[in-house]
Amino acid sequence: MKPNQKDVEATRFKYLFLLPALILIFAVVIYPFIYNIVISLSNMSMSHFHDWQIVGFRQYAKVFSEPIFYSVLGKTVVWTIVNVFFHVVIGVFLAVLLNRYLPGKGIFRTLLIIPWAMPQYITALTWRGMFNYEYGAINLILSRLLHLPMVQWLKNPTDAFAACILTNIWLGFPFMMVIAYGGLQSIPKELYEVADVDGASGWQKFWKITVPHLRPVMIPAIVLGVIWTFNNLNVIWLVSNGGEPSDKTHILVSYVYKAAFNLYRYGYAAALSMVIFFILLLFGINFIRKTRATEGAY
Amino acid sequence: MRRRGISKLKLVAIYIFLILFTAATLYPVVRVFSISLRPGNRLLSTSLRIIPDGATFEAYRRLFTETDFLRWMLNSLIVSLAVTLTGVIFASAAGYIFSKYRFIGKKVGLTALLTTQMFPATMLLLPMYIMISKLGLINSYLGLIVVYLATVLPFCIWQMKGYYDTIPDSLHEAAIIDGCSHFQAFYKVILPLAAPALVITALFSFMGSWSEYIVAAVILQDQSMFTLPLGLKMFQANMSTDWGLYAAGSVIVSIPVVVLFIILSKWLVSGLTLGSVKG
Amino acid sequence: MRRYIIFIFVGVFLFSCGKRQKEKTITIWHQMQIEGRETLERACKEYSAAHPDLKIVTLYKETEELRSAFQTASLAGGGPQIIYGPSDQVGPFSRMRLILPLEELFSTDSLEKFDRMSLTYFEGHLYQIGDRIGNHLALVYNKALIPEPPKDTDELIKLGKQLTKDIDGDGRIDRYALVWNYTEPYFFIPFLGGFGGWVMDENAHPTLDTKATIDALRFVVALRDSVAIIPKECDYDMADALFKEGRAAMIINGPWSWGGYMKSGLDIGIACIPKISKTGLWPTPMVSPKGYSINRNTKSDILPDVVNLIYYLTSPSVELEFTRTLGTIPSRLEAQRDSIVISNPIISASREQLARGRPMPVVPELRAIWDAMRPAYQAVLGGAMTPEEAAKMMQKDAEKKIKEMNE
Known about the structure:
The complex is a heterotrimer. In chain A, 74% of the residues lie in helices and 0% in strands. Chain A is flat. By secondary structure, chain A is mostly helical. Chain A has helices spanning 2-40, 58-65, 67-99, 105-112, 114-117, 120-130, 137-145, 157-184, 189-197, 202-230, 234-239, 252-262, 266-291. Chain B has one domain: MetI-like fold, CATH 1.10.3720. Chain B has helices spanning 2-37, 58-65, 69-100, 106-115, 121-134, 141-165, 169-177, 182-193, 195-210, 214-219, 228-233, 243-268, 274-278. In chain C, helix 2 (34-50) packs antiparallel against helix 12 (316-326), helix 8 packs across helix 17 (387-405) and helix 16 runs antiparallel to helix 17. In chain C, strands 1, 2, 3, 4, 5, 11 and 12 form a seven-stranded mixed beta sheet that branches. Chain C has a four-stranded mixed beta sheet with strand order 7-8-6-9. By secondary structure, chain C is α/β, with parallel strands linked by helices. The longest helix of chain C is centred in the first third of the chain and has 21 residues, at 2-22. In chain C, strand 1 (24-30), helix 2 (34-50) and strand 2 form a beta-alpha-beta unit. The chains are: A mainly alpha, B mainly alpha, C alpha/beta. At the A-B interface, helix 1, helix 4, helix 5, helix 6 and helix 8 of A face helix 1, helix 3, helix 4, helix 5 and helix 6 of B.
């Protein structure tokens, strides 16, 4: 029968298209993931490196019993929200700006992705240099151009944390800009023309036309932006030189990293990683439910 | 006309803003460039001059003549292009199904894709190494490419799905009713419209493998197989990094990305608009 | 005819395959800087030329990464046969059972030819054979700015006040007397010793809550604030830049950096870090050899080759090759008597400082101590803590971290 044949074709098509990618992704991820669950329940450490044993939830209890966990978690949340907020706002703003009629906009578009293109290691350290009290560019601009007091960026925990955030905003906005720019291409120009005829203001057009159309493209970028930022080790590590001053600029991952590699506490670090995983899982599920991101056209 | 006058003024304001913003954005990059010209191998300088005293291209000369830089670049290109190509194929396919078809476990599947990104990468290295070495994929590009694909695909699939969502369902439905197979409806009707998303997927896949360091360091143990980030890392040492080489390498490393972006930009600004198709 | 040619081809092919299978590979992971790497590679090439069945692969990894990568590889049952690095990796590696005891593999006679400092023992076993000793901090001075280095801290302060100057009169200091990476506890150790303290006792128990720690902390803060001869903010790269630009007359840094200073055209001299006038003691930088250890996963059939390779890499001729390129102090007594070691003024000065240093503990507890010292130390520098509070906190944290680490 004909309709049946069509159904068979549709099913085959679906799986042929879907499964290769899914199998590949989960094949790579599943073993390391299970391994970590096991290690998180073990006492693996320097003295039990080869001969570790399952000890139950002791490591988890340790994670939650330490007050530092909560303060670092708080910082991680601030870090994530502030970063992603500015990534998205700056990114969308620039994308909208560059999407309008503007001769030579291609040059700006290309130049503005360079922070994304350059290896993070050196740009992050360059930023660290720019935050130096006496010789850094930022203080020189503050004091000489703007006549503001100089800031001892890297000495004070709050300022050092702000320095890390500033650096990461710089590193992250080009990505969001490109995503938003791609998203803007799907908006039919006619919609704006109709709105113009209706006498809508630019602001109205942005909220009524641009934002709803950007949503499907930006939501995955935002969800993943949050996840990646939450777990972004590099910038904090490099700009604050491993949590300086006084281990006050850690976020959860840099803290995990320190536990795992500096003090060889593998079991503890694995448990903390699982906690990070569950925090992000909770966030992810909630965010998706609120934004209905998994729901497509059907 | 009044409107034109305003928009001209606005245009100038936009240009001024863009120029200032771009200049500020590029400043750290320019600093990196000036490190690469600096004699005597210094990361920092107390001077704000862009062209340092005694500027020299020595680092670039050394990079190309005394190191395996070109070899690393070639290796990186092989890996990144392989990831980009397969990434675009896999993501455009899987994203399409997630957007346009109904099936059991769709929501779970999409969420599960996200969960693969949630685990701190540093903790996955140890088991990853064990797995890769048991599979005999240490020192192979295949192993590296597969891992890279697994890390970039979740985002790419979501991103493709999001873009397909903005394309009305009536298009591929009509094509199928007109007698197209499902594949033809995808390939001939929808895919060309999704060009901007394909560009982003390509760029992201490329970047994901072009600048990736930690996984590569686990898998590649032979210097002649090194990719660029591993090669650059060779100039880096505890308290005695060769900053000149490192900076010069970083400048060169970012060039292919920019070139790729310029090439892809053509499709990022898709000539086709939905309106023209619909009409 | 054709058939014969095919036979020959197949024969050659099989033969070459067979030969390849017989070929043994020894892999060395190390953390030598670029110049050192070249010397190592050259030495290995020479060795494998003399031993055609042996292939030697060297792989550079940055110190910390070398450690974690080695742990990972070792847990998976693999890894390089030889690992080269500073002696403080011996403690953790042996505790994790990653490396082999060496005393049975190397003859006592041969070990006697080494400077005793270069043989790293841990819990009664030899785990590392050094090819160089030292690697310690010393005072480097720019001869154009200061012809004679200060002998003690009183002199340092007097000279320092003359040297620290606002040259162009814009209200900002353009030249400092002294710079160093003072945010890092490793660079604080010389002063700790100079005030009579040390990081731990023989039982690896931290000894940080002492008057010596408090005095040393006060001293560093005073150099910055009241005496004001060091910059307000100074990490490694900033210190390095200031010294290379001639904006600092002296720097405290290790042998890894000296070559770079000479290369950037400075006329430098090396001296001991000035004696602490208040106590009459010399500062005590940590002294540590670097050397080779053997992976436990090394297959027994290749072990003799690995041992021989280490013999070769620590032979006087190879060590002197390193001395020639890097100015390191060789570990073989015979090499230490060589003219290129004796006649080099930098090496002589470095050995003088070495004699005043103290060996870096190799116990893993040291890492916990660094981790405990860093936050409190930086808090004192940032003004968030008094030296007394910091000393207490260092001790408490160190004890806690050691407990956690040894769980």
